[in-house]
Amino acid sequence: MDFVKIASLSSRIEAETIGHALDQYDIPHQVKTDDAGGMLVPMFPGASIWVPSDKAQLAKKLLSCIEPGADAVQQAEDEPDSGQSTAG
After folding, report:
1. Position 31 confidence tier, pLDDT thresholds 50, 70, 90
2. Do the beta carbons of residue 76 and residue 10 sit within 8 Å?
3. pLDDT-based confidence at 4, cuts 50/70/90?
């Protein structure tokens, strides 16, 4: 299953909260960070949300209803992503 990035957010907590909203719509997701499991938050804040490519449009539509998510969706579209990811 190919995952695509749909949002870049300022914190892991924000990404996890949005992830819970996606759960309500049965949209699988991954929250990715570069913070070594929370140990390097001061050095590498932020997180991104990835969903299966076939669910990306629905997930973006749902995120547009959330104030912080609306900006994050636009930011994710403007950023180059690092390619495909697999679940896990």
Report:
1. very high
2. no
3. very high
Query: Which residue segment(s) compose the domain that 65 sits in?
Result: 3-78
pTM of the model: 0.65
* Assigned domain for 47 exists: yes
Residue type, position 17, single letter: T
Confidence (pLDDT) at 59 = 93
In angstroms, the CA 62 to CA 75 distance is 16
Round to whole Å and give the CA distance between 76 and 27.
18
Overall domain count for the chain: 1
Q: Which residues pair with 7 in a beta bridge?
A: 49
- CA 22-23-29 angle, to 5 degrees, is 65
31, β-bridge pairs:
49
